[in-house]
Amino acid sequence: MILSNVDNEMKIFLKNYKRPTNFNRVLSGMRPTGKIHLGNYFGALKPWLELQETLYKKGLKHTSYFFIADYHALTTGYEDVSNLKENIKNMMIDFLAVGLDPEKSVLFVQSHNEAHSEAYLLFGMITSIKLLERNPTYKELKENLKEKDLATYGFLGYPVLQTADILLYDPDIVPVGIDQVPHIFITNEIGRKFNNLFKPIFKEVKPYLSETPKLPGLDGRKMSKSYGNCIYLSDSKEEILKKVRSMKTDPNRIRKTDPGNPENCTVYLYHKVFAKELNLGEDFLKEIEEGCKKAKFGCVDCKKKLAQNIISFLEPIWEKRNYYQTNFDKVLEIFKEGDKLASAYAKEKVRQMKEAVNLFLF
After folding, report:
1. When you count CB atoms within 10 A of the terminal residue's CB, does the N or C end of the chain come out lower?
2. Res 296 pLDDT > 50
3. Contact predicate 189/40, CB 8 Å
4. With b meaning 16 or more CB within 10 Å and e meaning fewer, what string describes 195-221?
5. How many C-beta atoms lie closer than 10 Å to residue 306's C-beta?
6. In this structure, what DSSP letter does residue 225 have?
7. Topology of 235-325 in CATH?
8. What percent of the chain clears pLDDT 70, i.e. is strictly above it?
9. Under 8 Å CB-to-CB from 33, ≥6 apart: which residues?
10. Model confidence over 8-34: pLDDT tens digits?
């Protein structure tokens, strides 16, 4: 798939897309740019957990690779790295707290694996500037982050680093959002070019689009740290109560006695997600829906119910977070072991790359 006409290719891709069902290896990563919020959980971590369990049930251990993409945090945040180390530490804790399991998956930190840098360099030698400039995410971020100096080689070339991240581990699928699909196109294009120029050592990977619902932010917009509209996994009960009270509701429901339309309410969308997560059943949702439409209770009461459900959902995660924060030495042991497993696989792939381009090995 060539990126000469990204919009047209995306339309064709989405029209014909079917989620892969036959896969034995998966890889994905997350940038440590700040605290993990509920949008990150439902958009990325929850699908990772599901894939981890799918592969483990097949009898496959350590064929799920999930990593902290700390190099990628520098592509747009290189000017201020004061919080980077703390962000990495918190992400390590959160990966474990939500249920990623080192007995089932390989958990590692990108910068601890030198193979990523070497593969990045080798792929960079054959990647055209035009291919990178056609990347729609590159154009979008440059437009949205005008306050940052993004006229850097690192920002232009980050899809090449993503290519290295992916192809080093031979995954069958990469779970991504729709906006990240062009990066999979780029990965496959670079992989094919390497295969054709030198030696066929890389297979094509498929994007795996999640069916997990996307949660909007408190104000109804996309949940984003830059908008200040997030609920974080590490928020306290008091912070959640305060944030939920500020959530956007049906604008036509001004007074408690006004009937509302749940489908126009961010709170109701959250209710649907958390009712499913907590197995509250259809009766609970019908009660919320009827209470809104017939003005049986006001938005304040509805938000209180939601806040309690979010707290109930997060309590097991908080318990694990507290444990790993107190016992961070165990976290380090887990990620050091994951680094070893990832490095062993990736180093062999880089050796094959060097051999293919006829570098002298001894």
Report:
1. C
2. yes
3. no
4. eeebeeebeebbbbbbebeebbbbebe
5. 22
6. G
7. Tyrosyl-Transfer RNA Synthetase (1.10.240)
8. 98
9. 73, 77, 87, 225
10. 778 888 889 999 999 999 999 999 999
Report the predicted TM-score, pTM, of the whole model to 2 decimal places.
Answer: 0.93
The rounded distance, in Å, linking the Cα atoms of 234 and 224 is 15
Taking the domains of the chain in order of start, what are their residue ranges? 3-214+328-356, 235-325
Can 3-214+328-356 and 235-325 be said to share one CATH topology?
A: no
* CA gap 170, 23 in Å, rounded: 11
SS3 of 140-203: the string is: HHHHHCCCCCCCCHHHHCHHHHHHHHHHCCCCCEEEECHHHHHHHHHHHHHHHHHHHHCCCCCC
Q: CA-based diameter of the chain, in Å?
A: 80
Burial 19-35 (b: 16+ CB within 10 A, else e): eeeebebbbbbbbbbbb
Please report how many Cα atoms fall inside a 13 Å half-sphere around the Cα of residue 191, on the Cβ side: 26
Q: Alpha carbon 227 to chain centroid distance?
A: 18
150 close to 141: Cβ distance less than 8 angstroms: yes
The string of DSSP letters for 80-111 reads --TTHHHHHHHHHHHHHHHT--TTTEEEEEGG
Rounded to the nearest 10°, the torsion over CA 107, 348, 27, 81 is 60
CATH of domain 3-214+328-356: 3.40.50.620
- The conformation of residue 42, written as its DSSP 8-state character, comes to I
% of the chain beyond a pLDDT of 90: 84
Half-sphere exposure of 71 (CA within 13 A, CB side): 23
Give the residue carrying structure tokens 């507290």: 322
CB atoms within 10 A of CB 362: 2
Which of 64, 55, 54 is CA-nearest to residue 342?
A: 64
Q: Which residues contact 317 (CB under 8 A, 6 or more apart)?
A: 97, 98, 233
pLDDT tens for each residue of 72-124: 999 989 999 999 999 999 999 999 999 999 999 999 999 999 999 999 999 99
